[in-house]
Structure formats: C-alpha cells, structure tokens
Write a structure and sequence with these properties.
With about 400 residues, this protein is mainly α. The chain has a two-stranded antiparallel ribbon. Strand 1 and strand 2 form a beta hairpin. The longest helix is centred in the middle third of the chain and has 46 residues. It starts with a helix and ends with a helix. It comes from Coccinella septempunctata. GO terms for molecular function: G protein-coupled receptor activity; photoreceptor activity.
Length: about 400
C-alpha cells in the first residue's frame, strides 16, 4: 500500500473510531437535535467525502467540530470583512489610478498594496461558503485557490509595506539625493512580484511545501504540521523570507524616520530659543503638520497593522513546525486568519483618514461624504528644513 493509501486508511480508521457505538450517522441525523435538546457534535471532517480526506491533516481530525452557530458567526464576520475591503480598496484603486494629482511614483506602492488587499478579500466567498456548509465543502480545489490567493496577496502586501517604508525613508531623510521616479517604482513593484510568486507557486505545485485546510476546515494555508525535514525547512524559509525580511526593513526604515524627525524638531527648538521666538515655522499654526508627515503617519500605521496582523500567523506556523502542536486547536488557528483579513479591510480607511490629497479627491468625487478636507500646505518637510538651515547660517 502506498504512503497516501496508508494515510487515508488511518484517517478512515480514526473516523470509524470516533463513531464507535453509535454507527455512522447520516447528514440529516448529524445536524438534528438530540433527545435532550443538545446538538450532536462530531469530529471535524465527519462530512468530508472519503476521497477528500487525504488532503486534511490528521491533527485537525482529532478535534470536535465547533457548534453550527460558530460557523455561521464567522461566515457573517467574513461577509462584513468582504464588503468593507472591496469598497475601501476599490475606492483606493479607483481614486489613486484616476486622479492626476495622485499618480505619483510613491503612490504606485499604495496602489499595489490596495491591489494585494483586494485580492486577499476576493477569496473570502470560499470561506463563507465553507462556513455555511460547516466544513471542507468546496474541497481541495477551493482550498488550493484560497491558499494560493492568500499567499500571493499576503507576501506581496508584506514586501509592498517594506518598500513603502523605504520610500518614506528616502523622501523624508534624504530629500535631495534623488527623487523616486515612476520607472524606478515600477521596477521595485516588479521585483516585489518576482519575489512573491515563487512562494505561492511552490506549495501549489507541491514542488516544496503544500497547501491544506486548517482550523475549522473552512480556511486553507501552507502546511505547517507535516513533521518532515523538507516541510520544516519550507516553513523556516518562508518565515524568514516573507516575514523576517520585510519586518526588518520596516523596523529599520521607520526607526530612521523617527530619529530624523526628532533630531530636526530638536534643532528647530534650539534655533528658536537662540532667536527668542516661539517657533521658526511660518505660514502655519504651531500644531499643524505638513503633508509628508501626515502621509508618513499613515504609512507607519499601515505597516504597524501589517506587523500586528501577520505576527500571530508567523508564531502559529513556527509552533506547528517546531513546537508543541497540541497548542494549536482549531479555534486558536482561526484567530490569525481573522486578523490578517481585518487589516486588509482597515488599510484603505487609514489612507482615507490620513492622506490629504486622497481625501481631497474623495471630496471632489463624492461630496455627499462631507469630508471637508482643507487645501494642503504646499510647503514640504524638505523645504522647511532647507529654509531653517539657511536661517541658522545667517544667524
């Protein structure tokens, strides 16, 4: 008997063991209420066809299925996620692509991030369908589509966030060392996708790693449970390349931004003190902010959300591959799945709150939103820094 055949036999034996003493119930009997008014619960995978069982890790089949209400609740939550993300990211793609004032090299990264988030949420109908049918309803095909789209969009979003951090870093800390061009931005985006695609194709074709269901068997991701050397190497490699590398870039570039801004503000305060004035800033209120700083805040917020959403998934995968798998219950594994989807919903609204030109374009196209964004100050951080340096030299 082949390895796959032995694994299928073990799963079938496990399913039979779970039903010992009661017989294999029908789908109608399984969904019906018991004599004492309590719902009959079975092990996960009870309603999965025999030919599909081989694709499910035995680890998940040892747990009881959640109540039907939990499936339905998650389905409704994902419907909300889907509507929020499609509307929000759709608006970002439309406004940033059509508004001439927003068609800049830097905003090409914003469009790429919105595209990744859009793709991330296009797969949610698969989860919703599985949830309302309480399990692995769309089978291996649906699972492969779900996991492939998730890998492309998730890793692509991570690397895009890293390049957004790089762009903000060069804009704010080195404004005169060469402005980012559209050609350079396009090359960077091309590199992002060349870097991302192999990590989605390899497990899809099972060249290295594989995709499989997780948790309540309604979502799918790369397999982090198979206890083989090759699979552990894959989990370790994808953890380093798709999490550690973008995370390191984000932390480095934004720490440099924060350091530069603090040093600049300190220099302004010291010079103002020498000149016996409250502030060196002109044509603006003391508490006002330049457009670059507001955009940087939006970018920092989005990158923080990326870190907060994907860190649980990274920890989950490491525990599954190298730690105690008993810690990974179906309910626990569904938490990271929800956090990464939630962030894909929030990203466009962070820009709606913090990006001045985007708000102006929304106000122009949708006046009924009553955004009332004032005209932005044309003075940039770089210009202010140059003028203050000139004032210091004259003093």
């Amino acid at each position: 008997m082949s390895v796959g055949g032995k694994r299928l036999q073990r799963i079938l034996d496990m399913r039979l063991h779970n039903w010992t003493g009661a017989g294999a119930p029908s789908a109608l009997q399984s969904r019906a209420m018991g004599l004492e008014g309590t719902e009959v619960l079975h092990r996960l995978g009870w309603n999965v066809p025999k030919e599909e069982l081989i694709h499910i890790q035995e680890h998940w089949l040892t747990f009881l299925e959640p109540p039907a209400s939990m499936h339905f609740l998650l389905g409704l939550v994902y419907i909300g996620f889907f509507l929020m993300a499609i509307i929000g990211n759709g608006l970002v793609l439309w406004i940033f692509s059509s508004a001439k004032s927003l068609r800049t090299a830097s905003n090409m990264f914003v469009v790429n991030l919105a595209f990744c988030d859009f793709v991330m949420m296009l797969k949610t109908p698969i989860f919703i369908y599985n949830s309302f049918y309480r399990g692995f309803a769309l089978g291996q095909l649906g699972c492969q589509i779900f996991a492939f789209m998730g890998s492309l969009s998730g890793i692509g979003a991570g690397m895009t966030n890293a390049f957004i951090a790089y762009d903000r870093y060069t804009t704010i800390t080195k404004p005169f060392d060469g402005k980012l061009t559209r050609t350079k931005a396009f090359v960077f985006i091309l590199l992002i996708w060349l870097y991302t695609i192999p990590w989605a194709v390899m497990p899809l074709t099972e060249v290295w790693g594989r995709f499989g269901p997780e948790g309540f068997l309604t979502a799918c991701t790369f397999d982090y449970l198979t206890n083989t050397f090759d699979n552990k190497m894959f989990v370790g490699s994808i953890f380093f390349c798709s999490y550690c590398i973008p995370m390191s870039m984000i932390v480095y570039f934004y720490s440099k931004i924060v350091s530069t801004v603090f040093n600049h503000e300190k220099a302004l305060r010291e010079q103002a003190k020498k000149m016996n004035v409250d502030s060196l800033r002109s044509n603006q209120n003391q508490g006002s902010q330049t457009a670059e700083v507001r955009i940087a805040k939006a970018a920092i917020t989005i990158c923080f959300l990326f870190v907060a959403s994907w860190t649980p998934y990274a920890v989950l995968a490491l525990i599954g591959a190298f730690g105690d798998q008993k810690l990974l219950t179906p309910g626990v594994s569904m938490i990271p799945a929800c956090t990464c989807k939630f962030v894909a919903c929030l990203d466009p609204y962070v820009y709606a709150i913090s990006h001045p030109r985007y708000r102006q374009e929304l106000q122009k196209r949708m006046p009924w939103l009553a955004i009332n964004e004032p005209a932005e100050d044309t003075k940039s951080v770089a210009t202010a820094a140059t003028q203050n340096n000139e004032q210091e030299q004259k003093a």
